[in-house]
């Protein structure tokens, strides 16, 4: 069975990172929530655009409370794998679902680079998210030196083999149209640098990711998995990236803090299918 691109869920997720005061964050979220009213969001699960924002933890509860009626979904930038316990500084999946979060980014390259995140810990976090009905956005991507030495597919293959291991088993008895977990391809050399992968470079890696997922799970599941691209996505380049057959959305950092740009990226998602 082959899914056409327009049958997959298109996801535009904003990763605010450690930015905005609470007042700024609330203003940004409310402004965005007004703007997205112009778009034809559908309740039909088989073909839809989903918009997610991932503000800092301290903002989630307040923003969610003000956006109960909004189509925008809330996500966290990380989660811990245990439900509770002596893990100073960590936040668990039940804490996030309790305040209305539906998503959690796991394995972002900044977590890998600055906070010792490994493929194994990414896997634990993704599994905990799924067990508690949070949808993980699992990030993978190569560094510049890995790309230049021709190791891109080896690195991403390993990140997937370990990071996604056992996740399908958690979903075994659940019915779904779109795979609850999504993969974000974020080449490290493109994050926050203004250097975007070309649409062809993104498509090449996304095809590799879909094939790897197909080998690890099944073609059916791989075809239902949304693959997001991240790394300097902005209002200008989003449309070219999103029209690629295997680019099913974007994980947006810097441009998600600019309501005009983020709205334009969402517009590109609606016109991409
Ligand atoms: P950027 O960040 O869009 O600012 O490059 C993307 C990300 O880190 O998710």
Features:
12 helices; 273 residues; alpha/beta; binds 2-phosphoglycolic acid
Set out the fold topology.
Elements: E1 10-15, H1 22-35, E2 49-54, H2 57-66, E3 73-76, H3 93-98, E4 103-106, H4 109-114, H5 119-131, E5 135-140, H6 144-148, H7 152-163, H8 167-170, E6 182-185, H9 199-216, H10 219-223, E7 227-230, H11 238-242, E8 249-252, H12 259-270
Parallel strand pairs: 1-2, 1-8, 2-3, 3-4, 4-5, 5-6, 6-7, 7-8
Helix pairs in contact: 1-2, 5-7, 7-9
Bound molecules: 2-phosphoglycolic acid.
2-phosphoglycolic acid binds at residues 15, 186, 191-192, 230-233, 251-255.
Task: Give helix and strand order, one letter per element, not per position.
Answer: EHEHEHEHHEHHHEHHEHEH
Helix content: 40-55%
Distance between the ends: 19 Å
Helices and strands: which structural class?
alpha/beta
- How much of the sequence lies in strands comes to 5-15%
The profile of the biggest β sheet is: 8 strands, parallel, barrel
Which residue ranges are poorly predicted, with pLDDT under 50 across at least 5 consecutive positions?
none
Number of strands: 8
Shape: globular
Radius of gyration: 17 Å
Instruction: Provide the list of bound ligands, each named once.
Output: 2-phosphoglycolic acid
Strand order of the largest sheet: 1-2-3-4-5-6-7-8
What is the arithmetic mean of pLDDT? 94
Number of helices: 12
């Amino acid at each position: 069975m082959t899914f056409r691109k327009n049958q997959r869920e298109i996801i535009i997720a904003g990763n605010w990172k450690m930015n905005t005061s609470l007042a700024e964050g609330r203003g940004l979220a409310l402004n965005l929530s007004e703007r997205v009213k112009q778009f034809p969001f559908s309740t039909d699960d088989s073909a839809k655009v989903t918009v997610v924002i991932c503000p800092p933890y301290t903002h989630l509860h307040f923003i969610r409370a003000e956006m109960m009626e909004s189509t925008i979904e809330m996500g966290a930038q990380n989660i811990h794998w245990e439900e509770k316990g002596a893990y100073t500084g960590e936040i668990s999946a039940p804490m996030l679902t309790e305040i209305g979060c539906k998503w959690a980014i796991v394995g972002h390259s900044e977590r890998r680079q600055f906070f010792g995140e490994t493929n194994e810990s990414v896997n634990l976090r993704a599994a905990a998210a799924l067990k508690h009905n949070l949808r993980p956005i699992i990030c993978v991507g190569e560094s510049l030196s890995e790309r230049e030495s021709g190791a891109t597919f080896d690195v991403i293959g390993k990140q997937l083999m370990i990071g996604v291991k056992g996740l399908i088993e958690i979903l075994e008895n659940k019915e779904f149209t779109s795979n609850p977990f999504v993969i974000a391809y974020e080449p490290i050399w493109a994050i926050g640098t203004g250097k975007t992968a070309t649409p062809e470079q993104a498509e090449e890696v996304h095809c590799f990711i879909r094939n790897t997922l197909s080998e690890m799970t099944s073609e059916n599941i791989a075809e239902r998995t949304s693959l997001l691209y991240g790394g300097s996505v902005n209002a200008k380049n989003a449309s070219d990236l999103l029209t690629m057959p295997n680019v099913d959305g974007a994980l947006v950092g810097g441009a998600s803090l600019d309501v005009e740009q983020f709205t334009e990226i969402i517009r590109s998602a609606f016109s991409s299918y």
